[in-house]
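task queued by scheduler; priority normal; single chain, no ligands, no partner chains; default sampling; output format set to structure tokens
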Amino acid sequence: MLLYWRDIYFKDNKMKILLTIFITVFSFNAMAMQTKSPQKIAYLMTWADYTGGVFKFALETQDEEAQSLCPGGYWLDGASDKNAALYDFIKDAYQAKTPIVVYANESQDWDGMITKECKLQLAAGV
């Protein structure tokens, strides 16, 4: 049955391309946002014991969409081994004044502050 289904629906390369696009579009988090242009980091904050290694930063100038979705900036748990490299990257970009593009999850606000911050997923230097 599987072979028959594949022969009917995947005989044409167009169907393969459409299926790939469909899977790609719907596999990304619907709540993800990104900054439209590279920006320098305005400030970087870390705390002592009570935050568990969370760090927060904000960009110098955000586009309107990023400002409305993440007005307080971006956060991530820097104490996690998985996030240590990203924390080092953000710290280095801040110190070197390197513009970055940020991808973040707007639905994951850090409850450690009264402002709305988005959870950092990816940062890319330019």
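post-processing summary
- The beta strands are 32-34, 41-46, 54-59, 74-77, 100-105, 118-125.
- The longest strand covers residues 118-125.
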